[in-house]
Amino acid sequence: MSLRELGSGWKTRLEQVDWYLCFGLIFLFLVICGLSMGGWKLHLVLNDADALPIEAVAIKGDRQFTSDAEIRTALQDLMQRSFFSADVNQVQQALEDLPWVYHASVRREWPAKLKVYLVEQTPVAHWNETDWLNEQGQVFKAPLREGIGQLPNLVGPEDQAKSVLTNYRQVSELLKINGFDLARLELSPRHAWLAVLANGIELKLGREDKMARVQRFIHVYPTLVKQAKPVARVDLRYDTGLAVGWDEAQDESR
Predict the structure, then answer these.
(1) Which helix (H) or strand (E) holds 211?
(2) Span 123-140, pLDDT tens digits
(3) Can you tell me the distance from the alpha carbon of 253 to that of 229, in angstroms, rounded to the nearest whole number?
(4) Do residues 201 and 233 lie in contact, with contact meaning Cβ atoms separated by under 8 Å?
(5) Average pLDDT over residues 76-98
(6) Is the dihedral of CA 182, 187, 188, 193 positive or negative?
(7) Rg for the chain (alpha carbons), in Å?
(8) Structural domain boundaries of the chain?
(9) Residue 142 backbone dihedrals phi, psi, to 5 degrees
(10) Is 167 strand, coil or helix?
(11) Sign (positive/negative) of CA torsion 146, 149, 154, 159?
(12) How far apart are CA 203 and CA 145, in angstroms?
């Protein structure tokens, strides 16, 4: 094939090319490249803590047991991120991991602030000597804080915390309207109840009819206090009667 024929063939092929389509595809390719480059640069900027730092964290909510120092420590690593790359769910979890925080809600506020609302645990009782119970009957661990006040001691199997709290409220209310304060309520592994009053008297209530048995103690107590010896414990696990244990040691000390 001669050079003339070869050139003529190429000319024919070039005339058949749709140059509008080619230039259109090239333009589209350049646009995609430009958008990709712009997106990559935008990603770098949004994740650059120096360019878009979190400048402030506004904490709202009543706090009695959670200090600013504890919050700063919990958020120390997360605050090194940019305003847009900071994960509000991680911030929320870090705050809720603090021992006295019950719930935290977090949201971004333009241009560089996180707004946090905290709800603290409200302790209503000591649980199994080492833990606490909140108003919902949930067990939580937290260090002792000043200002908590005098709380009852509740004891029971780990999965019975809510039930023990409910029963404490029922028994305590009945005793309180009759002039007694309930300081401790225990549920044994065999589901027997033991109540301890603020004056130290123990009430063995057994597994059934505990409210009726508490009422029986209330009725008979005026007679018991007339006796020469102080009452130490009252066994109410009988259908119609009760057994009284006297405080011999206290009587001898007198």
Answers:
(1) helix 210-224
(2) 999 999 999 999 999 999
(3) 11
(4) yes
(5) 81
(6) positive
(7) 37
(8) 56-120, 123-249
(9) -160, 150
(10) helix
(11) negative
(12) 31
pTM attached to this predicted model: 0.76
The confidence band for 71, taking pLDDT boundaries of 50, 70 and 90, is very high
**Most confident segment among 3-17, 42-56, 75-89:** 75-89
53 upstream amide cis, omega within 30 of 0 = no
Please name the helix (run of DSSP H) or strand (run of DSSP E) that holds residue 194, with its range, or none. strand 193-197
Q: What is the mean pLDDT of residues 143-155?
A: 94
What pLDDT score does 254 carry?
Answer: 35
Q: What is the CATH number of domain 56-120?
A: 3.10.20.310
CA angle centred on 50, ends 105 and 75, rounded to 5°: 30
Query: Which homologous superfamily does the CATH classification assign to the domain defined by 123-249?
Result: Cell division protein FtsQ/DivIB (3.40.50.11690)
Which residues are CB-neighbours of 66 under 8 A, at least 6 positions away? 98, 100, 101, 118, 120
